[in-house]
Automatic annotation (TrEMBL):
EC number of the protein: 2.5.1.15
Identification of the protein by name: Dihydropteroate synthase
Gene3D superfamilies, per database record: Dihydropteroate synthase-like (3.20.20.20)
Protein species of origin: Tuwongella immobilis
GO molecular function, one term: metal ion binding
Amino acid sequence: MPETPHQWHCRQHILEMRTRPLVMGILNVTPDSFSDGGKHLHQHDALEAARRMIADGADILDIGGESSRPGSQPISLDEELQRVIPVVERISAESPIPISVDTTKPEVARQALQAGACIINDITALRDPAMVAVARDFQAGVALMHMQGTPATMQQNPQYEDVVTEVRGFLESRLHDLIHAGIAWERMVIDPGIGFGKTIDHNLRLLAELPQFLRLNRPVLLGVSRKGFIGTILQRSMAERLAGSLAVAAMAVTQQSAQILRVHDVAATRDVVVLLSTIRQAAPNPGT
């Protein structure tokens, strides 16, 4: 297995993941996200949720104002700005925690970075040249995700000849394109996009072969928390998917195949990450 990359440079932050994966807490300031839509739409509720995740040990907060669940439709720029920017401003004033903005809109990213964010989490992998310019100008960290289609269409019969080869090839191409566009290598992480234009079989194949993505020599961000394939396999409702989500997180820690876990349940995930990482570090070094 290739050596795992251990750092992510995000503006003033250098995020270190040598001893354990980082836990990225999800804060959806939306009425219609698939898991927590409507819970944090009001600023007071969003701030309370952010504070809980920080207290629970989140390493990063990922704040998004537009749902990307299957079938969702885009919202206006003004609406997304009104949802996201006040929350970023308040949290960055209260805490030094690194903040990621989950957006496809360059202007939302620009204003969030001005307000204190340091990461752009873009489900379109910075395919908009204007987003590339924002990331470059602010020296932001970027998360590049694979998605077949758009949120509105992505689950309408997604097809691949070889899902692992195709997703990995797309991410490799984006990494090299962005290097040429002036985004530093150490500022990028990759996300195979579980559930974004994939069937259950595609998702399972990507998870089973996740270590292959380390060949791209960038940290892997994995987002599976409460997703539909967990509910389908286990026959569990949205509220009953914690154990399934933790099982996938545990697999990633054990495989050392993901360096950032994007989750709704910060405290439980952090417990799994810390305990398994501690056990792994206690194992004798085969070379000694």
